[in-house]
Amino acid sequence: MGAADKMIGSVLGIVSTNLSSFEFCALDRLYRHPRKLDFSDFGRRKTALFLTVSDTDRSQDRLIGLFWTQALQRLCLSADRDFPGHRLDVPVRLYLDDFATNVYIPDFDKISSNVRSREIYLSVILQSLSQLEALYGPSKAATIMGNCDQQVVLGVQDIPTASYFAEKADVPKSCMMNMPLGSCYVFLRGRTAQLAQKYDMTAHLCDRTLSAQDPAACEDGIFVYEEKHHEIDR
Fold first, then answer.
1. Residue 180's CB: how many other CB atoms inside 10 A?
2. Cα radius of gyration (the chain)
3. Intervals of the chain under pLDDT 70
4. Mutual orientation of helices 138-146 and 129-136 as an angle, nearest 10°?
5. Which residue in 7, 92, 105, 78 sits closest to 49, CA to CA?
6. Residue 161 and residue 195: Cα distance in Å, rounded?
7. At 188, is the secondary structure helix, strand, or coil?
8. Tell me, what's the pLDDT at 175?
9. Which residue from 80, 98, 166, 203 could staple onto 176, CB 3.0 to 4.6 Å apart?
């Protein structure tokens, strides 16, 4: 086999690896479906989209990473092109649960630095800082953490994460690791860290409506409720 044949074989191998995530019938049906998802619509009207990713089957990670990359790129493009102030009319928030054990989003450290000015917000949910460093490296992980103006610590079990937040809160590391159940530390930019109580979701006015699954409260598959405003005791 000559050098040219080896080069062609190498190129075909790389192409096959990168396209393998797209070679199945379900994805083909998705692309051919008449109803298409336009990410720019999220900045024009209130919409909720739930994306479920397997935490055991990693074969579709490349596809999910492409989904997030296109979503963020499209939203930024829409803000810059479609709105005079370069800010989306309807703010968009992405809740990225189990972020560090999920898919890798290229250039996320840079993305997290510049999307807020376009009314795009990212809520990154982690189990530990070591997971974030393992996925993005220490330097990029530090940038991502630095771009989070609001941070909430629900509980800490590993020493490096406890040390990081204990230093930020100016408390002993043992206080962070032995945080009482039902409590959390809240960090807001420009304010002193506070030990607070976790919110009881069952006390929310929507809880009874959603848990009861009352058909009368559902219109076209969407639960509706009368919006009320309550004063919160501080």
1. 9
2. 22
3. 1-2, 4, 21, 208-234
4. 120
5. 92
6. 17
7. strand
8. 92
9. 166
Bridge partners of residue 151, in order along the sequence: 187
Query: What tokens appear for 41 in the block?
Result: 């619509």
Angle value at C-alpha 214, between 210 and 219, nearest 5 degrees: 90
C-alpha 73: how far from its chain's center? 15
SS (H, E, C) 90-126: CCEEEEECCHHHCCCCCCHHHHHHHCHHHCEEEEECC
Q: Residue-wise over 138-158: b if at least 16 C-beta within 10 A, else e? A: eebbbbbbebeeebebebbee
pLDDT for 64 equals 85
CB–CB of 132/143 below 8 Å? no
Three-class SS state of 52: coil
- Could you tell me the pTM of the whole model? 0.76
Q: How far apart are CA 185 and CA 27, in angstroms?
A: 42
Domain boundaries, the chain: 37-148
Dihedrals phi, psi of 126, to nearest 5 degrees = -125, 160
Q: Hunting for tokens 């030990």 — which residue is that?
A: 195
Closest alpha carbon to 63 in 51, 74, 47, 48: 51
Separation between Cα atoms, residue 50 and residue 52, nearest integer Å? 6
Residues 6+ apart with CB under 8 A from 71: 39, 94
* φ/ψ of residue 185, rounded to 5: -100, 135
Q: At what angle do helices 129-136 and 159-169 cross, to 10 degrees?
A: 110
